[in-house]
Specification:
Layout lengths: L3 E4 H13 L3 E8 L2 E6 L10 E6 L2 E6 L16 H4 L3 E6 L12 E6 L1 H15 L6 H8 L2 E5 L10 H4 L11 E8 L2 E8 L2 H7 L5 E2 L2 H14 L12 H7 L18 H5 L6 E7 L6 E7 L9 E2 L2 E2 L4 H20 L9 H4 L7 H20 L1
Parallel strand pairs: 2-7, 7-8, 8-9
Antiparallel strand pairs: 1-10, 1-11, 2-3, 4-5, 6-13, 9-10, 12-13, 14-15
Helix pairs in contact: 8-10, 8-12
């Protein structure tokens, strides 16, 4: 299909149609002084007229001067929590326990960075020799309505990671929100047959070339207004060259080792398994939950943890996320969403770390050339 236009009524009907088709519709909504991802009862639950102000260790809601639904950057959650839940029952000794039915999710408002994150999680959890069947089942049944970014946040750096602001493949429908004197409207691109089927009965019209060009231009221009930027260099090679850099030890007193960055990261996938029983010993369960490489016992072996200091665990996380992830999975583990910066209690900025390492490496190279 060619690009079409939905108005505000059409978008509301899209949410209703997905719900009517049996999907659990998940999207951004206002709760607990943040824009979070939760189940929507209607399009009225979307955060109309709300934006966010973010900086290292800082996140605040703010009122916009329009009623945009998607005029905000990433919140504290990602779509990972629905595809790879933080706690999952793997086994129960109770023979009467029934297997949980795989939910049918419809995700509304998936940004380009998060769409890339879902694809990278699929590489890790769905593309290995022994795929995670639960993850694969959830993703296969999901319907994705992506949203192109036209207003990057102060901590966004997807452009320098090659993951946005234009959404890539993996969506069923992709929206570009536009606000003018007549209100909200959405340029819609179709990415799958399922997307075309869902869109077909909704009130829409074909977009004219001027509308399409304007929407594409807004998205392309957003790449020039990112709040952060990674250095334009080979991050894997930079981290190898900088392994002995004194910078890697600086700021150790600021690192709390709480693992907030791994919990909000849309691509961190590590888990641990726990066996539990009731007080009588007659019932046992096995649970899988998210784990963090910032935990002291994450690398515990028979003589104790391998990485005992917080700086060493931070160094491992940074090196894996931007370096050795390439060796394992063929891409970076970072998609440039900026969540780790906003939700770090002490405001540690991964882009600042990498840019300083890059500057120091260039200075070293310059002295070597003299």
């Amino acid at each position: 299909m060619n690009s079409v236009v939905l108005d505000a009524v059409g978008l509301a009907q899209l949410v209703s149609r997905l719900s009517g088709l049996g999907y659990r519709v998940i999207g951004p909504t206002l709760r607990d002084n943040a824009i979070v991802l939760a189940e929507l009862s209607s399009a009225g639950d979307l955060p109309a007229g709300w934006g966010v102000d973010v900086s290292p260790g800082h996140y605040r809601l703010r009122r916009r001067n329009d009623d945009a639904l998607f005029g905000h950057s990433a919140g504290p959650q990602s779509w990972k929590q629905f595809l790879h839940p933080p706690r999952q029952l793997l086994w129960s000794s109770d023979e009467a326990t029934e297997a949980e039915e795989t939910p049918r999710y419809a995700f509304i408002g998936v940004r380009a960075c998060d769409l890339s994150a879902i694809a990278r999680l699929n590489t890790v959890l769905g593309g290995a020799a022994h795929p995670d069947g639960a993850f694969v089942g959830r993703l296969r049944r999901a319907f994705v309505v992506a949203v192109n970014c036209t207003e990057p946040g102060a901590l966004c750096f997807c452009a320098s990671m090659g993951t946005g602001p234009q959404v890539g493949p993996g969506y069923d429908l992709a929206l570009t929100e536009r606000i003018d004197e007549s209100g909200r409207s959405y340029i819609v691109d179709v990415g799958s047959d399922e997307g075309a089927d869902v869109l077909a009965p909704l009130p829409h019209r074909e977009a004219d070339p001027g509308e399409i060009d304007s929407a594409r231009s807004d998205v392309a221009e957003a790449a020039n207004h990112m709040g952060r930027q990674m250095p334009a260099t080979d991050h894997r090679e930079l981290l190898i060259q900088s392994r002995e850099s004194p910078r890697r030890g600086e700021g150790a007193d600021r690192r709390l080792g709480r693992g907030s960055c791994t919990m909000v990261c849309p691509t961190c996938f590590c888990t641990s398994v726990e066996d539990v029983t009731d007080l009588t010993g007659q019932h046992a369960e096995r649970w899988m939950g998210w784990a963090s490489c910032f935990e002291l016992d994450f690398t515990h072996v028979h003589e104790g943890p391998v990485r005992k200091s917080v700086p060493s665990r931070y160094r491992h996380w940074l090196t894996h996320k931007l370096g050795t992830w390439h060796d394992q999975f063929g891409s970076s583990g970072c998609v440039g969403c900026g969540r780790c910066i906003a939700w770090c209690p002490t405001g540690i900025d991964i882009t600042e770390e990498m840019n300083v390492l890059d500057l120091l490496a260039r200075e070293t190279d310059s002295r070597s050339d003299v």
